[in-house]
Amino acid sequence: xxxxxxxxxxxxxxxQPSEPQTAVEQQGHQLFEPGEKPQKLAGGFLFTEGPARDSxxxxxxxxxxxxxxWVWTIQDSLQEFADSSGRANGLYFGPAGYLYACSDANNxxxxxxxxxxxxVVLDHFEDKSFNGPNDLWINSEGGIYFTDPYYRRDYWTxxxxxxxxxxxxxxxxxxxxxxxxASGFERPNGIVGSERDSLLYVxxxxxxxTFSFRILPDNTxxxxxxxxxxxxxxxxxxxxxxxxxxxxxxxxxxPSGNKLAxxxxxxxxxxxxxxxxxxxxxxxxxxxxxxxxxxxxIKGL
Length: 301
Fold this sequence. Notes:
CATH superfamily: TolB, C-terminal domain
Oligomer: single chain
CATH topology: Neuraminidase
Largest sheet: 4 strands, antiparallel
Strand content: 35-45%
Number of strands: 24
CATH class: Mainly Beta
């Protein structure tokens, strides 16, 4: 982990949104204080993505075009964690404390240790390259669910994907090969799960829908349901099972798919979201060039 003085282009905790914002809409008061606004913690990035909380509450996130992973610590400081991430997008911590990343420079899943050293965990399916792993969720056993859409990247040398399936995959702990557990998508993107409820949520950007699946004991999926008519780049859950979707700010839905609140963010696009901080009661939001935070009444799942 690298420590250094931040350049002036980065805007730390004192930064505020450029325009007045309000987070409370409908039942938002159950989630956060009335009038509470997201604070801008840092800025000056090219495109932020993939926030993930470690066991202490530190939140790691990517600046995907710059090939970096950063961490906002529970001491309210910004530090660079990795300066070569395989152009990581989605991040998630596994039960052993390793940080896993959807690294689409070469369409791989990477793993980082606490010092930022990396290794490739997975790079193919049935002798074909992945289309570009985008987001992931890891269960308590260390099994990895991830989405594999196709977004044409200007840094790729190939033109067409090798694998025609745009699907959701599962990599069992210690396995060398992943298994396809859900297909029938156009461009699957955000993903998150709840072992408590045996549910997995997957959003499809092109289908403008977020789906729920029942997770079976063998970690395969069943009971596909179009839960919310809204796509999401990334997502998270709180302790009551409310689902937080991103894109135009953050929109919160209850477990039945009813809208609870909308949290405006003064950026062109809100990429992803997670809970973090010492008590897991701060909502961290990666949005275009910035990192934002909103104190919550409720904890993350």
